[in-house]
């Protein structure tokens, strides 16, 4: 990796840390950057998951005020995220790399669709007025999102927000804070497993980690003031670039 490539990875980490905290699609920025500097798809995905863990934790800490009063909800849903992350990580390293290369473009398309419908999901969340707290369906939905995140984390946060938007009545910022905690643990658990069962590009991990910590704090401070339409536009462009890169490798 050249110096300029290393700088690009750090900048991508900053951007991803901020996007993950506010929207939840940072992998669509960092994953294609890692591909562009020469890492194979599975190595790039594994290293990306590890590298973004500090940023996810940084974003969760930045939203700590919105987490007050949600301890019971976290205790109930965190096991679902952890179990899902384990399943997703095991699938990543047991399925052949050709399967990953075939599946990931489809997952990126799904992620991009989720990013594009984020305003609608936000309105659904904001308009809910019932006392429903999700129940078993919410637990299963968070588990499924954890499997997705353990295998390939792009737009995992958007997926979690969409599930909660349909099933839970709560303020958007509080749900965003909860989303940051759940996705942070998915990345953390999957990342720890990857250390023992997969090839990791440690330089990429360190560069992403440094950038994502800064980005997580920036995202938490700016929060909803960031122009979502601009973020979505950038994410879509980068995601399409990732699809093209994967299909032409």
What can you see in these coordinates?
It is a single chain. The protein is mainly alpha-helical. It has one domain (3-248). It is 81% helix and 0% strand. It has 12 helices and no strands. α2 (27-36) packs across α3, α5 runs parallel beside α8 (135-151) and α8 packs antiparallel against α9 (156-167). It is globular. It starts with a helix and ends with a helix. 53% of the residues are buried.
Q: What distance lies between the first and last C-alpha atoms, to the nearest angstrom?
A: 19 Å
The secondary structure category is mainly alpha
Strand content: under 5%
Instruction: Give, in order, the helices and strands.
Output: HHHHHHHHHHHH
Mean pLDDT: 84
Total count of domains: 1
Poorly predicted regions:
none
Fraction of helical residues = over 70%
- By DSSP (H or I, 4+ residues per run), the number of helices equals 12
Principal-axis shape: globular
Strand count: 0
What composes the largest sheet? Answer: none
Radius of gyration: 16 Å
Family: Belongs to the 4-toluene sulfonate uptake permease (TSUP) (TC 2.A.102) family.
Transmembrane segments: 6-39, 77-93, 99-117, 137-164, 184-208, 229-248
Organism: Lentzea xinjiangensis
Pfam family, one: TauE
